[in-house]
Hints:
- The complex is a heterodimer.
- Chain A is an alpha/beta fold.
- Chain A is built from 21 helices and 16 strands.
- Chain A has helices at 11-15, 18-31, 72-77, 97-100, 118-123, 128-136, 138-148, 160-169, 190-197, 199-213, 227-242, 273-280, 309-321, 323-327, 360-367, 401-406, 425-439, 445-462, 467-484, 488-492, 494-503; strands at 3-6, 36-39, 53-57, 60-64, 89-91, 176-181, 217-222, 258-263, 304-308, 330-331, 334-335, 337-344, 350-355, 377-382, 389-391, 415-420.
- In chain A, the strands form four sheets. Chain A has a five-stranded mixed sheet with strand order 2-1-3-4-5, covered by helices on one side.
- Chain A starts with a strand and ends in a 16-residue tail after the last helix.
- By secondary structure, chain B is of the alpha+beta class.
- Helix content of chain B is 44%, strand content 13%.
- Chain B has seven helices and five strands, in the order ααααβααββββα.
- In chain B, strand 4 and strand 5 (138-140) form a beta hairpin.
- In chain B, helix 3 packs across helix 4.
- The longest helix of chain B has 12 residues, at 26-37.
- Chain B is elongated.
- The N and C termini of chain B lie close together (10 Å).
- Bound molecules: flavin mononucleotide, iron/sulfur cluster and FE2/S2 (inorganic) cluster (2 copies).
- One FE2/S2 (inorganic) cluster binds at residues 82, 84-87, 123-127, 130, 132 of chain B.
Amino acid sequence: MSVRIYVPKDACSIACGADEVAAAIEAAALSRRQPIEIVRNGSRGMLWLEPMIEVVTPEGRIAYGPVAEEDVEGLFAAGFLTGGDHALRIGKPEEHPFLAKQTRLTFARCGIIDPASYTDYRAHGGYRGLERALQLGPAEIIEEVKKSGLRGRGGAGFPTAIKWKTVADAKADRKYIVCNADEGDSGTFADRMIMEGDPFELIEGMTIAGIAVGATKGFVYTRSEYPHAIWAMEKAIEVARAHGMLGVNIAGSQYSFDMEVRMGAGAYVCGEETALLDSLEGKRGVVRAKPPLPAHKGLFQKPTVINNVLSLTAVPHILADGGEFYANFGMGRSRGTMPIQIAGNVKFGGLFETAFGITLGELINDIGGGTASGKPVKAAQVGGPLGAYVPTWQFDLPFDYEAFAAKDALIGHGGIVVFDETADLAKMARFAMEFCSVESCGKCTPCRIGSTRGVELMDRIIAGQRVEANLATLTDLCQTMKLGSLCALGGFTPYPVLSALNHFPEDFGAPPRHLEAAE
Amino acid sequence: MPHYEPWSDERARAVIEEFSHLEGPLMPMLHAVQETFGYVPEAVVPMLAEMLNISRAEVHGVVTFYHDFRHEPAGRHVLKLCRAEACQAAGGDALADHAEHRLGCKLGETTADGRVTVEPIYCLGLCATAPSAMLDGKIVARLNERRLDALIAEAQS
Lengths: 519, 157
Ligand SMILES: Cc1cc2nc3c(=O)[nH]c(=O)nc-3n(C[C@H](O)[C@H](O)[C@H](O)COP(=O)(O)O)c2cc1C
Ligand code: SF4
Ligand code: FES
Ligand code: FES
């Protein structure tokens, strides 16, 4: 009897050797005349265990990992095809504490299904949201999203329903849905994982958005650093079309919607929504002044919804189970779940989807297991290159937009990068300035020139030259950048810089601040 | 190793025309040109300008804005090392130094024998299994000195 084996084709698994493992399993099975079927799934998100393979047994799926090519013979010898014991045996993935503790809505199917299979997607609850959306019609779809309290997961946390309503109310011959899949923040990979592991979910979310606002065309704009995600998305789009779920009269309804994937070209600033739109139009990715809002004049000057992958993939669940169901998760004004990404110098790195409200300390220490190096944690940068460095004495901070903002920090796209005690935060502050200068779109002087000046100042500070005076200049410069920048690249780069300085002045050659520890 | 075609006016035109039906075709066109020739030759600028009915300066502006587009061919192999925060937290700085030392050139440069171009890249989305790299499109995670040496050897072969 043929045994089914799942070997992820998530980029992270591939980068850890999954293709070689799949080939080794194939070869070993062939030499044993053992019929097998290999399914290339997405990742479950326990990334320290990748490549994590799963064998389908009568008791359920049994996982092994991290599997190297060299382990394959041993796994066969141990009888892994029937769930046999082995040093790499993990057991049932869903019983692993890392997964058992999560509340998975967006990632419910990721790692479980074959991402290229329409049948699998349907069998696991896919397109339930679209079916309900078709019954409700545009106005009620938006009402449902409003009830859910969904806020944009791309970083700014803007209420999704309000954006949709604006586009729905705009009169135009053509409207667009643009998915921001540019995911440039270090420490983030949730968009990538969904596109590789459950691409139909994004197609479904964008289709629902199209119906809600009256748009017939969608674009997924993603990064050239994500070739695997691009392949997976394009494959799924093709399959969806073949099943009548994209194109004219979707699922036999009166609505039409189709979509394309477009690739950026290595510019971080193109994650900013207006720069992204210009890039899609074939221009330099320069940030546009607002107004006009993209909702009024977006892509090709037409009303456009632009949303992050995670905002759009939350939508099918909101429609399928109702806005109230979704809003039941979370705290304060942060409703629903957030796929949090734990990365950097961390023992158990991966994707952890949970309701808002969990603390940073739980995520890093309890779930992440502390540092990979085994040295004490020094700080975590949350929210990408524009996010603050949070010191361990603030790890009681709950994951909530407002709680983070109150500490001059941001959740951003939900990435956490852990640093151990060997990290030099002055060097990280210099990097923040350098990154801003490399990636600036060039429109505003404080961002373009200021960041270059910031690098020079940091070089002097690190060299120990006139530290006090240079730190004062640095603080002033940060203030200028905050106030005089058009977008968050120039405007938020001061946050990592100033948080590093305020919490770890000793790294900058300034006297330590003991008071803060008592905060 | 990637195989690129020698420059040909005719071929360039054919590659570009394949995308002329798209909305906002310039970026896909530039990517296709680079995939074909390994870089974006100056000679495609007037070609694109004419086809899309925009100025040469505009096309040139786009080509120079994006980090991905090369203005001259790269070395035979391209090794990209992730230099973003998560990879730095996981020991990426030492690996970058090691690569520069082994190759005898700095990030952003090509070895004297033209075999390897080594470049920084800012996040491959493999941040939970950092540090990461990409060799000619092949992604590698959990990089350490031994694995990096193997990649460098592969690139130099
Ligand atoms: C420099 C910069 C980079 C950004 N990068 C991204 C990104 O990679 N992905 C994203 O969804 N939003 C990014 N944003 C935020 C977008 O401008 C925008 O807020 C978002 O696409 C809106 O979608 P949402 O409401 O679903 O979050 C970035 C913003 C700035 C200023
Ligand atoms: S802050 Fe920087 S990136 Fe943003 S618009 Fe100004 S120059 Fe461009
Ligand atoms: S916006 Fe033009 S220089 Fe600041
Ligand atoms: S920071 Fe290197 S892969 Fe994300």
